[in-house]
Amino acid sequence: MKTRKFSEKPKDLSSRVGAKTVVCYPNDNIDQSNLNILHKARNHLTKVNEVIIPPRDAKIFEVREGNFFRIESIEGPQVGDLNLFQLNNLDEKFYSGKSRALYGTHLSVGDKMMSSFPYLRSLATITWDTLDWYGYDEDGGSVHDVIGTRCDPYTSKLLSGKDYHYCCHSNLIRSLVKEKSLSIKEAEKVVHDVLNVFMCTGFTKDTKQYFMKASPVRPGDYLEFFAETDLLGALSACPGGDCGSEHSSDVAKCYPLKVSVWSVDPSYLKNLKNSEISKYNNTHGLG
Question: How confident is the model at residue 246, as a pLDDT?
Fold first, then answer.
């Protein structure tokens, strides 16, 4: 927080502040032609599988390239923390920081779930969002953020001095250990910063601290994605429930979430452009 100021203001202050803003990563050159195809294709979906995520827990799910999947509120307002991996290579995983740099603090329709270096490709594209009407509220809050990392037991221990085992980080760890037979150490290395599905967040106007408020999500709301490669997903139903009070808690009212997977006849995906791994030559100036 930059609320404490110890240094003196420079004499040339007026020439050093107030410069115009420049977008760091203009995304105009990222091809969006797939979206029209996907919007037509999603009118012909057939459900092939679903997974229920219990409150204060996490489960994994698989989605094949060319299928859609939805994360849905089914019983009450509930936030979910999503990890995505390339199914056969857990080293290629969702890169929330670069997705944020390209698309902003909160994701919605047309935004891509970019993968980590050295791959940097779209793992999935968001194709529908029943909460897109929310926009940004008067506090600067919005839904589906890529600014919070996930609630975790280490920060909880730092701030409260207590051990709490049902933070989203631990939930995701357990799901990978139980369902993919990873060791805890292996799972710790691959669990990563999340897409906070349905979570309503922003930065305070004075101290610029990360805030949350009760999510506007209600049963029947969903966020839909198109898988651009074979995916392994891990979703935690956050122990904060709608995150209107606290997010590492056995007190907050929590509800399950549903993940459903949907197929579509490949003929509806004709002319779709494939997501490709970065073609950077990986020499880093060394050869």
Answer: 85
State the pLDDT at residue 47.
98
- The one-letter amino acid code at 98 reads K
* Nearest CA among 102, 35, 50, 75 for reference residue 233: 50
Residue 118: cis peptide before it, omega within 30 degrees of 0: yes
Q: Are the C-beta atoms of residues 27 and 102 closer than 8 Å to each other?
A: yes
C-alpha 39/C-alpha 264 separation (Å) is 12
pLDDT at 223: 99
Taking Cα atoms as reference points, which of 256, 227, 213 lies closest to residue 57? 256
Rounded to whole angstroms, how far apart are CA atoms 259 and 59? 10
Angle, CA 121 vertex, CA 287 and CA 124 arms, to 5°: 165
pLDDT of 121 strictly over 80: yes
Residues 6+ apart with CB under 8 A from 28: none
Which residue, 130, 228, 146, is CA-closest to 192? Answer: 146
Structure token pair of residue 262: 């949907």
Q: Measured between alpha carbons, how far is 149 from 236 in angstroms, rounded to an integer?
A: 13
Rounded Cα distance, 101 and 105, in Å: 8
Give yes or no for residue 1 having a pLDDT over 80. Answer: no
> Token match 């670069």: residue?
98
Helix (H) or strand (E) holding 41: helix 34-41
How far is it, in rounded angstroms, from Cα 224 to Cα 233? 13
pLDDT at position 128, please?
Answer: 98
Question: Any residues with CB less than 8 A from the CB of 131 and at least 6 apart, and which?
Answer: 143, 144, 198, 216, 217, 221, 223
